[in-house]
Specification:
Number of domains of chain B: 1
CATH topology of chain B: ABC transporter involved in vitamin B12 uptake, BtuC
Number of strands of chain B: 2
Largest sheet of chain A: 6 strands, mixed
CATH superfamily of chain B: ABC transporter involved in vitamin B12 uptake, BtuC
Oligomer: heterodimer
Number of helices of chain B: 14
Shape of chain B: globular
Shape of chain A: globular
CATH topology of chain A: Rossmann fold
Strand content of chain A: 25-35%
Distance between the termini of chain B: 16 Å
Order of helices and strands of chain B: HHHHHEEHHHHHHHHH
Number of domains of chain A: 1
Radius of gyration of chain B: 21 Å
Order of helices and strands of chain A: EEEHEEHEHHHEHEHEEHHEE
Largest sheet of chain B: 2 strands, antiparallel
Helix content of chain A: 25-40%
CATH architecture of chain B: Orthogonal Bundle
Chain lengths: ~260, ~350
């Protein structure tokens, strides 16, 4: 699905967070959003997900304005994975993933074969088939995050929004989640992910939008966006950037001020 | 389906059998000893179109105008309290959220005692006062904890506790101001019991409880989604605050009517949802009907005990429910602490 964002404005209690933000995202693209804390990444994702109402401008899915969709319709098109996730009671993995079918069901409709197929698919993509009877609250943080990714996938979305999905995970689960997400374009899913770790973003995304003060400052391929100059301007830190194999991958690492003795 | 959960079908069959037994026990047992065969024929006689001769008239009066409505009212009150407890625990993801914590009973007591002191003597005045008091208290609690489009669970529970003590103070003041006869009426109402049960009460409760629980059942999946938190629920197409307001409103209305009918009966709204969640799991599509049945069954049986333990005097059923509910709840709490997690 193609997403066009034009002049998007949003404010919390009068404090402007997004200022005339423009962004266009191609079909089946994996796009990363990087930027300092408070730069508006989460707010942008929530606007695209229809959870927050923009104060101006527009968001268009394949040319159709988000305004014209109901909350439930949006949930059949857009799914989201948040940074922190909790389950209130002892639901099993399968029960939680089945909740992803909510937007597809009318109030008195029961799960049919299509719903079961979607849930099975989501469990298999996230490698959770053996976990389906386990209680979510007994899983580790990384496993839990995969359950919530499976929940989002069970919605069978065209667009997946990820808000720092790996920031509280160890490197093993970081890579697992990113590998799974990067493979979703083959399933016809466009992905927009706010990512703190610049190296992870550089490694897995097709394009990166660097966001600061509620505006997209630079947009392009990782090696074009993640330059020493851009990072210094946006984050205010000095880093070294090395180009690396294969193709245009970049590695970013801090320039140490203190020396180690 | 996880290993340590009962299958829904088995659970509902067991609950249904227990309910039928509860009806029989509730109709057959009472301070007046009525032979089972007489009870049976009197019940059969109530089926429209059946007209039996030679039934003992005094027994007939006891069963038809006292025991039968009492069992039915007990069923509805128990269901109402258990359903509203389940809903409140569900929307606030907090095991302590119950109609009582949120002020239904304190508000109801204050309303009831106020009507008595103000000199309303009609039989309906006290329950209507209780209803208004309960709705007012929960409304205030919710209004106070609602800020910037969301409700904080902690604020909600703290506000509930604080307002409950305020309303309790009002009740105490009213009892202090009332004459001896009025004091007696208020205290009896506050003790909680099904002795006022009548066909009139059944007719008041049935539509409210049936409609309220019906709508709540239909929103079972929304309640499941809310268990993931407001943020995740919103991305599933649920409008969290709208659903919470609506469910809280219905749960409050249903429990307030139950409280105005039967006074303050503790622990049904707290313990039954927990027990049922342990048996069938947290899926509200199954949990809600199971809790409704469980609450009704529990109150019918405890009410029979209330009638029987101190014959011919009758113990307030709230005493019995607390005697069972409190230790069991403490046991659960202990299990959870030992188990290291909240179910």
């Amino acid at each position: 699905m193609k997403i066009e964002i034009e002049n998007l404005k949003f404010a919390y209690n009068g404090r402007e967070v997004l200022q005339e933000l423009d962004l266009s995202i191609r079909n089946n693209e994996f796009i990363g959003l990087v930027g300092p804390n408070g730069s508006g990444k989460t707010t942008l994702l929530k606007n695209i997900g229809g959870v927050l109402e923009p104060r101006g401008g527009g968001i268009y899915f394949d040319g159709k304005s988000l305004h014209n969709y109901s909350a439930k319709e949006i949930a059949t098109i857009v799914a989201a994975l948040q940074q922190e996730n909790q389950v209130g009671f002892d639901f099993t993995v399968r029960e939680v993933v089945e909740m992803g079918r909510f937007p597809h069901l009318s109030r008195f409709e029961r799960h049919d074969a299509e719903d079961h197929r979607a849930v099975d698919w989501a469990l298999s993509v996230t490698d959770l088939e053996d976990f389906s009877d386990r209680y979510v609250n007994q899983l580790s943080g990384g496993e839990k995050q995969r359950v919530f990714l499976a929940l989002a996938l069970a919605q069978e979305p065209d667009l997946l929004l990820l808000d720092e999905p790996t920031s509280s995970l160890d490197i093993n689960y970081q890579i697992k989640i990113m590998e799974t997400v990067a493979a979703l374009k083959d399933e016809g899913i466009t992905v927009i992910a706010a990512i703190h770790d610049l190296n992870l973003a550089a490694h897995y995304t097709d394009r990166i939008g660097m966001i600061d003060n509620g505006e997209i400052k630079v947009l392009g391929e990782p090696c074009q966006v993640l330059t020493k100059e851009n990072i210094a301007k946006t984050f205010g830190v000095e880093v070294e950037v090395k180009n690396a194999e294969p193709k245009d991958f970049v590695h970013i690492f801090p320039r140490r001020r203190a020396s180690i003795n | 389906m996880s290993q340590d959960r009962a299958r829904p079908r088995t659970t509902f069959v067991v609950l249904f059998v227990l309910l039928v037994l509860a009806f029989i026990v509730g109709v057959v047992l009472g301070p007046v000893n009525i032979p089972i065969s007489d009870s049976f024929f009197i019940l059969v006689n109530e089926i429209p179109g059946v007209n039996l001769d030679g039934l003992p008239g005094n027994y007939q009066a006891i069963i038809v105008s006292l025991r039968l409505p009492r069992v039915l009212v007990g069923m509805l009150v128990g269901s109402a309290l258990a359903i509203s407890g389940t809903v409140m625990q569900g929307i606030f993801r907090n095991p302590l959220a119950t109609p009582y914590i949120l002020g239904v009973s304190a508000g109801g007591s204050a309303g009831a005692s106020t009507t008595v002191v103000l000199g309303f003597t009609s039989n309906l005045a006290l329950p209507v006062g209780a209803l208004i008091g309960a709705l007012l208290a929960v409304g205030l609690v919710y209004r106070i904890s609602y800020t910037r489009g969301t409700t904080s669970t902690y604020t909600l529970i703290l506000a509930g506790v604080a307002l409950s003590s305020l309303f309790s103070a009002i009740t105490t003041a009213m009892i202090f101001l009332a004459g001896p006869y009025e004091q007696h009426r208020v205290l009896f109402w506050m003790m909680g019991g099904l002795w006022r049960s009548s066909w009139t009460w059944f007719k008041i409760l049935l539509p409210v409880v049936a409609l309220g629980t019906g709508v709540i059942f239909a929103w079972g999946r929304d309640l499941n989604a809310l268990a993931l938190g407001e943020g995740a629920a919103a991305h599933l197409g649920v409008k969290p605050e709208t659903v919470k307001k609506m469910m809280l409103g219905l749960a409050t209305a249903v429990s307030a009517v139950a409280v105005s009918a039967a006074g303050t009966i503790g622990f049904v709204g707290l313990v039954i949802p927990h027990i049922m969640r342990m048996i069938v799991g947290p899926n509200h599509m199954i949990l809600l009907p199971a809790a409704a049945l469980g609450g009704g069954i529990f109150l019918i049986y405890t009410d029979v005990m209330a009638k029987m333990v101190m014959q011919p005097a009758e113990m307030p059923v709230g005493v019995i429910t607390a005697f069972f509910g409190a230790p069991f709840f403490l046991y659960l709490l202990r299990q959870k602490i030992v188990g290291g997690r909240m179910r």
